C-alpha cells in the first residue's frame, strides 16, 4: 500500500504544467535566469483569478522574455520587436471581452517599443503589462539597455554605463498607468499577488519584475550567478507600498524599492470613447465593447 | 484561421515557424516558409495585379507609371494626344507583381516605353527585363523634393514620337 501511495505521488503533476505547452519544453532560458520564476508567478495568479483561460490572450515582443508567449498554453502571440503593446491594443479593441496581457522584457518594451508604452499608458488602454527587467539585452549579447544602471558594465559599455537609465515605475506612473508595481523574482508571492491584482484591474497595469541575467549582466558585472542575485534582492530590497515613484529609481548596487506604488481609477480608452461619443451623438451612438470596454 | 478567445489556444510568431506556428530557426524551416509565402504571391499574381490601360492598343509609345506620378503622366499623355501623338498610358495600381507578360505582348507593337518614376530609375529595370530589347525603354528619373512636371513627360513623349 505504501508503495502505491509513493507511486501516486510521483505521478502527480506540477501545478504549473497545465499552463505550459509541454511540446515546447525545454525552454531557452539559461540556468538561474529569473524569467521562468515570473512565469510560475503568473500561472499562480491565473489559478487564483478563476478566470476563463480561453478569454486571456498573451502577447510578447522579441527577446528572452518575449519567448514567454510561446510557452504558455493560452492564445499567444509572439510579435515583432517592440510591437507587443500595439498588437495587444488591436487585439483588445477587436475583442474587448479578452483580457490581454503583454509579457516582455525591458529592452523590447521600453527601448524599441518605448513610444508604444508611453502612449498606451497615456490612453489607459486596458492591458496588463508585465515587464521583466534584467537591465540588459540578453538574447543579443548583453548590450546596454535603457534600464542599465549607471556604472554597470555591458558589452557596449565596457567601462561602465554613463547613460542615465529610465526608472520604469516613474515612467509608467507619469504616463498615466492605473496600477504600477515593482517586485523582484525573490518576491514570488508578492509578484504573483501583483499579477492577480493586475488581472482584475481595468486600465493600464504596469508590473516591473527585476530578474537576474546570469549569463550576461551578472557575469560581466561580477555579481555571481542567479542565486547570488536573489540574495542581493533579499538583502537590498525595501518594501514601500505607495512610495512616490520619483523616489524609486535604481542604482547599480543601491537599495531596491519594491511594492505597489500606484493603484488608481481612470476611464479606460474605450470608456472615454464611449462616454465622449455618447455625449456628442446621444442616442445615435451604440457604445462599443459593453462592460468589457 | 481561428480567433483569439475561441478556445483554440493558438500560437502565432513573427519568427520563422513550422506548421504549428512555433518558432523553428533553421534553414529547412526557412526554405519551406519562404517558398510557401512567395508561392502565395506567384500563384495568385494574376489576381493581385491591377493594371489600368488607356489607349495602349495600337500605340507606338506607352507611358508606364505608378503612384503619384500617374496623375502627371495622365495630363502629359492627354496633352500629347491633343498634339496628335498616338500615345498609350499603362498605370500600375499594384506595383508588384509586375505585369511582365503584358509588357512582352505590348512590345510586339510598341516602339518606346517611357517610365517616369520618383527615384533614380528602379522599376524601369523591370520593363527592360520584360521586353528584353524588343522595344526602346526610356527612363525619366526624378530625385524627389517635388513630383515630375507634366512638361518633362510630354517632352519625352514628343521626343520619342520624332
Kindly list the characteristics that best describe this protein.
heterodimer, A: 8-stranded mixed sheet, two-stranded antiparallel sheet, 37% helix, B: 162 residues, alpha/beta, 6 helices, elongated
User: What's the oligomerization state?
Assistant: heterodimer
Q: Given the C-alpha coordinates, what overall shape of chain B results?
A: elongated
Instruction: Give start-end ranges of low-pLDDT stretches of chain A.
Output: none
Helix and strand run of chain B? EHHEEHEHEHEH
The count of DSSP E runs of length 2 or more, i.e. the number of strands of chain A, is 10
Q: Provide the succession of SSEs of chain A.
A: HHEHEHEHHEEEHEHEHHEEH
Radius of gyration of chain A: 20 Å
User: Count of helical segments of chain A?
Assistant: 11
Principal-axes geometry of chain A comes out as globular
- Protein structure class of chain A: alpha/beta
β content of chain A, as a range?
15-25%
Q: Count every helix of chain B, treating DSSP H or I runs of 4 or more residues as helices.
A: 6
Strand count of chain B: 6
Order of strands in the sheet with the most strands of chain B? 2-4-3-5-6
Strand order of the largest sheet of chain A: 2-1-3-4-8-7-10-9
Low-confidence stretches of chain B: none
Biggest sheet character of chain A: 8 strands, mixed
How far the N terminus sits from the C terminus of chain A, by CA atoms, comes to 55 Å
- Biggest β-sheet of chain B: count, sense, barrel? 5 strands, mixed
Explained architecture:
The complex is a heterodimer of chains A (293) and B (162). In chain A, the strands form 2 sheets. In chain A, strands 2-1-3-4-8-7-10-9 form an 8-stranded mixed beta sheet, with helices on both faces. Chain A has a two-stranded antiparallel ribbon with strand order 5-6. In chain A, 37% of the residues lie in helices and 17% in strands. Chain A is α/β, with parallel strands linked by helices and 293 residues long. The model of chain A has no long low-confidence stretch (mean pLDDT 95). With 162 residues, chain B is of the alpha/beta class. Chain B contains 6 helices and 6 strands. In chain B, helix 5 (123-131) links the parallel strand 5 (112-117) and strand 6. Chain B is elongated and about 65 Å long. Chain B starts with 10 loop residues before the first strand and ends with a helix. Chains A and B meet through strand 2 of A and strand 1 of B. Strand 2 of chain A pairs parallel with strand 1 (11-13) of chain B.
Amino acid at each position: 500500500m505504501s508503495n502505491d501511495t509513493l507511486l501516486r505521488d510521483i505521478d502527480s503533476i506540477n501545478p504549473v504544467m497545465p499552463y505550459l505547452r509541454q511540446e515546447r519544453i525545454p525552454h531557452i532560458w539559461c540556468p538561474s535566469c529569473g524569467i521562468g520564476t515570473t512565469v510560475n508567478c503568473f500561472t499562480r495568479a491565473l489559478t487564483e483569478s478563476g478566470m476563463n483561460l480561453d478569454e486571456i490572450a498573451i502577447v510578447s515582443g522579441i527577446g528572452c522574455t518575449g519567448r514567454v508567449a510561446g510557452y504558455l498554453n493560452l492564445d499567444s502571440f509572439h510579435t515583432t520587436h517592440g510591437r507587443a503593446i500595439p498588437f495587444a491594443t488591436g487585439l483588445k479593441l477587436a475583442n474587448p471581452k479578452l483580457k490581454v496581457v503583454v509579457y516582455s522584457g525591458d529592452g523590447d518594451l521600453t527601448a524599441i517599443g518605448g513610444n508604444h508604452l508611453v502612449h498606451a499608458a497615456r490612453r489607459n488602454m486596458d492591458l496588463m503589462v508585465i515587464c521583466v527587467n534584467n537591465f540588459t539585452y540578453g538574447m543579443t549579447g548583453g548590450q546596454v539597455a535603457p534600464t542599465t544602471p549607471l556604472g554597470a558594465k555591458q558589452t557596449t559599455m565596457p567601462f561602465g554605463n554613463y547613460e542615465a537609465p529610465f526608472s520604469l515605475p516613474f515612467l509608467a506612473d507619469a504616463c498615466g498607468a492605473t496600477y504600477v508595481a515593482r517586485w523582484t523574482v525573490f518576491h514570488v508571492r508578492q509578484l504573483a499577488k501583483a499579477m492577480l491584482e493586475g488581472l482584475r484591474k481595468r486600465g493600464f497595469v504596469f508590473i516591473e519584475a527585476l530578474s537576474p541575467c546570469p549569463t550576461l549582466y551578472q557575469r560581466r558585472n561580477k555579481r555571481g550567478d542567479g542565486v547570488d542575485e536573489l540574495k542581493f534582492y533579499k538583502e537590498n530590497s525595501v518594501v514601500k507600498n505607495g512610495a512616490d515613484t520619483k523616489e524609486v529609481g535604481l542604482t547599480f548596487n543601491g537599495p531596491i524599492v519594491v511594492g505597489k506604488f500606484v493603484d488608481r481609477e481612470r476611464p479606460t480608452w474605450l470608456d472615454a470613447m464611449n462616454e465622449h461619443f455618447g455625449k456628442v451623438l446621444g442616442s445615435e451612438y451604440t457604445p462599443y465593447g459593453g462592460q468589457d470596454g | 484561421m481561428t480567433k483569439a478567445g475561441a478556445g483554440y489556444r493558438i500560437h502565432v510568431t513573427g519568427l520563422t515557424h513550422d506548421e504549428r506556428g512555433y518558432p523553428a530557426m533553421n534553414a529547412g524551416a526557412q526554405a519551406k516558409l519562404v517558398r510557401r509565402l512567395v508561392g502565395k504571391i506567384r500563384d495568385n499574381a494574376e489576381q493581385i495585379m491591377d493594371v489600368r490601360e488607356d489607349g495602349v492598343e495600337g500605340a507606338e509609345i506607352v507611358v508606364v507609371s505608378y503612384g503619384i506620378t500617374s496623375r502627371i503622366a495622365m495630363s502629359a499623355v492627354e496633352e500629347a494626344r491633343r498634339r496628335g501623338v498616338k500615345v498609350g498610358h499603362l498605370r500600375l495600381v499594384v506595383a508588384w507583381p509586375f505585369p511582365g507578360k503584358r509588357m512582352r505582348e505590348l512590345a510586339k507593337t510598341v516602339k518606346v516605353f517611357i517610365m517616369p518614376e520618383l527615384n533614380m530609375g528602379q522599376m524601369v529595370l523591370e520593363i527592360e527585363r520584360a521586353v528584353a530589347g524588343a522595344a526602346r525603354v526610356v527612363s525619366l528619373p526624378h530625385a524627389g523634393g517635388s513630383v515630375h512636371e507634366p512638361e518633362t513627360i510630354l517632352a519625352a513623349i514628343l521626343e520619342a514620337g520624332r
